[in-house]
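Figure S7 source data.
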Amino acid sequence: MSALAFDLAATIRHDGQGGVADELATADAVRDWIVAKAPLVAEVLGRPFDPGALPVGDDVQERLVAVRRAVRSLFARAVSPAPPSKADSQRLLEPAEALRLLNEAADKLGTTHLEWPADGEPVTRWSGRSTEPLTLLLGAIGRSGIDFLAGPERRRLRACPAARCVKYFLQDDPRQTWCSPSCGNRERVNRHYQRKHAG
Ligand SMILES: [Zn+2]
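Tokens for the predicted zinc ion complex:
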């Protein structure tokens, strides 16, 4: 699968001080993230993606954050009946609205076409009804989210239950409870402390 939609969802994280940090909080941060993920976007599109061609302005941030909200709302549904990430559990979209947003973004890529160079192997490429870079970016994210949620990895998705963690992660093993060893250790220490002080 492409990690693009999953990586977008992970831009909301624990800040290490009991709060939540948003990696897409400023226009500069948004641009950095897109530059870093350009290879993943290109992988989904089947063609190079130039982040430098994106328009400058709030629109990119606003629309990226809107798609992220849709992805995270569907992640919340995927992990239920377990509780979702605490970062945004108060402002999730209705599943129908989240699906509409994701599908609408992906729809702009059109359908897959077969390309078969004279001297190479046949490859599939999204036909790309639009050449507008923001549309291609959001389309690649939509496509990646659809593949993830319709694929086998959805069943491994978990929201880390550690008190201060807001992460979604892919469970490697059915016994894995926490997103990372550090979350597991912190929780064990907390529980030990609570038992000792509960009387
Ligand atoms: Zn965690």
